[in-house]
């Protein structure tokens, strides 16, 4: 443990040293967190950020649905927001959701309230915090379409209220400072009959179940779609469907998904992804960009 982590401030939440992260991410692979911190609430998190040693690295993770933790683990403090940050409330046509709320839970709550426009979140794995960071979306809709505002804390624990113009939303990304930690967001939809919203939500979910390997150990959509092209089609045309590296494999259900067949190392998964990128570039001249966030250091830690 480095010196910065040895002098962490007291918190009302919990610290866990050497916490295994493979149990917390969908790939079920990768190393440990030097320190895993679960804040009690937003005030506890703000106090930690204000008082932490200035050179301590901080990494925020959600449920790890679009995340690859490298085998050497993550140095410094990994922050994972617990259930206290997962509340979902309805106010008219608006939904206020904590950053730890599951995207699917927000979609279901909106459907129950007869709020249309958030159906797509039923098909987005992960939490609201991650969805904000990457402007998550599917089937033609994305976060920016329903976004009203977000609350975030900066590296010094100062609270910021971000409006649409502050987010700099682009395809599968936002352009907010990397050190901001989202704690909640507000979205707005339109009025519709709950039964109609639920029907569209279930239809979207059925499409996802038919076309994606959602029951496998995967990190979700691996590469961003290049302008004017589909990543899965480029991967298939490059002959990568079913390609393997150790126990990591390109899914034969949807080839923009990498899956862990058993006990794959994070290094196997990342190497497979890089081989796919190389084959696609050789075949089409297009360089795929990772959509999955890769964090931590290489190594043999398990």
Automatic annotation (TrEMBL):
Catalytic activity: UDP-N-acetyl-alpha-D-muramate + NADP(+) = UDP-N-acetyl-3-O-(1-carboxyvinyl)-alpha-D-glucosamine + NADPH + H(+)
Catalytic residues (UniProt): 172, 221 (proton donor), 291
InterPro entries: FAD-bd_PCMH, FAD-bd_PCMH-like_sf, FAD-bd_PCMH_sub1, FAD-bd_PCMH_sub2, MurB, MurB_C, MurB_C_sf, Oxid_FAD_bind_N
EC id: 1.3.1.98
Cofactor: FAD
Keywords: Cell cycle, Cell division, Cell shape, Cell wall biogenesis/degradation, Cytoplasm, FAD, Flavoprotein, NADP, Oxidoreductase, Peptidoglycan synthesis
Cell location: Cytoplasm
Biological or metabolic pathway of the protein: Cell wall biogenesis; peptidoglycan biosynthesis
Superkingdom, taxonomy of origin: Bacteria
Chief location bin: cytoplasm
Top enzyme category: oxidoreductase
Residue ranges constituting the FAD-binding PCMH-type domain according to the UniProt record: 28-207
Family: Belongs to the MurB family.
Function: Cell wall formation.
Protein name as annotated: UDP-N-acetylenolpyruvoylglucosamine reductase
Lineage of producing organism: Bacteria, Pseudomonadati, Pseudomonadota, Alphaproteobacteria, Micropepsales
Gene: murB
């Amino acid at each position: 443990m480095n010196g910065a982590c040895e002098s962490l401030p007291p918190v009302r939440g919990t610290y866990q040293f050497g916490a295994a992260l493979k149990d917390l991410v969908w790939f079920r692979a990768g190393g440990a967190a030097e320190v895993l911190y679960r804040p009690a609430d937003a005030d506890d998190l703000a106090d930690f950020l204000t008082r932490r040693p200035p050179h301590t690295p901080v990494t925020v993770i959600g449920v790890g649905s679009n995340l690859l933790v490298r085998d050497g683990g993550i140095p410094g403090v990994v922050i994972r927001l617990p259930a206290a940050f997962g509340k979902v409330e309805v106010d008219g046509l608006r939904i206020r959701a904590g950053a730890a709320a599951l995207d699917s839970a927000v979609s279901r709550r909106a459907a129950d309230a007869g709020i249309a426009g958030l159906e797509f979140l039923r098909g987005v794995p992960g939490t609201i915090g991650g969805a904000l960071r990457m402007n998550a979306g599917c089937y033609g809709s994305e976060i920016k379409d329903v976004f009203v505002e977000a609350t975030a804390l900066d590296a010094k624990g100062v609270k910021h209220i971000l409006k649409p113009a502050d987010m700099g939303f682009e395809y599968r990304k936002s352009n907010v400072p990397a050190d901001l930690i989202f704690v909640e967001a507000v979205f707005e939809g339109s009025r519709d009959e709950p039964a109609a919203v639920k029907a569209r939500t279930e239809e979207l979910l059925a499409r996802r179940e038919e076309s994606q390997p959602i029951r496998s150990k995967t990190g979700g959509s691996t590469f961003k779609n290049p302008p004017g092209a589909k990543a899965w089609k480029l991967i298939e045309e490059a002959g990568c469907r079913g390609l393997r590296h150790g126990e990591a494999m390109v899914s034969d259900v949807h080839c923009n998904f990498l899956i862990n067949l058993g006990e794959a190392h994070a290094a196997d998964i990342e190497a497979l992804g890089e081989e796919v990128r190389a084959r696609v570039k050789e075949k089409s001249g297009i360089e795929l960009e990772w959509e999955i966030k890769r964090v931590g250091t290489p190594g043999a830690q398990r």
